[in-house]
Amino acid sequence: MFAVVDVETTGVFTAMNHRVAEIGVVRVDAAGRIVDRWETLVNPGRDLGPQRIHGIRAADILDAPTFSQVAPALAEVLQGSIMVAHNLSFDAAFLAHEFRKADLSLPEAFLGGLCTMRLAHDFVIGNARSLAHCCEFLSVANDRAHCAGDDAMAAAGLLGRYIDMDPDRHDWTRALETARSISWPSYAASPRPFSPVIRATGNRVEKHFLSRITSHMPEFTGPEEHDQYLALLSQAMLDLQLSVHETRALLRVADELGISQERCRTLHIYYLEQLVRAAWADGVITAQERGDLYTAADLLAVERDFVDVNLSEPPAPTTDASPAQPPRAIRHGAVIVLTGAMTRERNELAGFLTEMGYNVADRATKKTDLVVAADPDSLSGKAAKARLYGIPVVAEQYLYDVIGVPCL
């Protein structure tokens, strides 16, 4: 049996502690026919690196298993086979690295299998050897590039096509003989059972977090509890995004404070009213402000009609002594930490922030005012420390929309 493997990783160097974030395995029989497919996202316990390449969001892997949890089940899938990959040295190095970190090992003979990229020299015309080019040349389906399961399927399709084109090639029989001769170690079952987490296709519609707050919670809250919820909501909405970490924090606070779903909805409307009032402060509503208010309404599960009605005329003066919605901008001189692989070089962004009067630090401490992340659900050490200290973690776009860093 052939085990065609593909991994998506947080970087390209195991020596720099880059980790596997997704793995796909497609088993193929001696005739080149696909037998089955196994895949899962993996929580790497760190930031996801160049997300623009693999497309995995931090939100996708928050509930995914770690590689240590995955390893015993993965080893069971791989046993009795030999590894195949498109760029075998890369995938084999990461697979071996992850098994070592889990205090396990894979047979060297398994890892030294077949490389569909190297084999392409005999089956694909031209110098290009990428998976996409080889698949296009041989009319092999390649549905989602840089999705481990789909890339493994594409490489398995290439292997099947190679076998069809040269069924008597010694590489196939030699590899299968090696697979049969490999002595595999025994692997204890994972102490923490897991279910594979499959990457979302993009068609999944998430329920708003309000729907997960009980409608029948006994109401014993008062202004102090409401202020606590609003303070957390205000911090979470700083970048006009609600990360999974932030929605979970809001759910936890609502539960701990006994705030019902209906009362949360009322607080969301109140918060949006304060945003509208802040937008009217200069007497003019710009297209950008209207768009931001629509975004806020969507995030808070409030109808956009509410925004339209409240923007139709300036609000009446209020004598409410409660503080207005805090501005989204942070004070000059604030300490800002950058984390993750952003769309621009971190040094370039740090230079702009320094020129604008902010202090850019390398690590998050209790004195940090803001952490700006490539992904607001980042699992980087800086983002984790910020959440521990109650420091806002915002998306990169905040730098351009609110602070005013020049766009590209």
Please supply descriptive tags for the structure shown above.
single chain; 408 residues; alpha/beta; Nucleotidyltransferase, domain 5; Rossmann fold; 3 domains; five-stranded mixed sheet; four-stranded parallel sheet; 9 strands; 42% helix
List the helices and strands and how they pair.
Blueprint: E1 2-9, E2 20-28, E3 34-41, H1 51-54, H2 58-61, H3 67-78, E4 82-85, H4 88-101, H5 108-111, E5 114-115, H6 116-119, H7 131-137, H8 148-165, H9 170-181, H10 223-236, H11 244-257, H12 261-279, H13 287-299, H14 304-311, E6 335-339, H15 346-355, E7 359-361, E8 370-373, H16 381-389, E9 393-395, H17 397-403
Parallel strand pairs: 1-4, 4-5, 6-7, 6-8, 8-9
Antiparallel strand pairs: 1-2, 2-3
Helix pairs in contact: 10-11, 12-13, 13-14
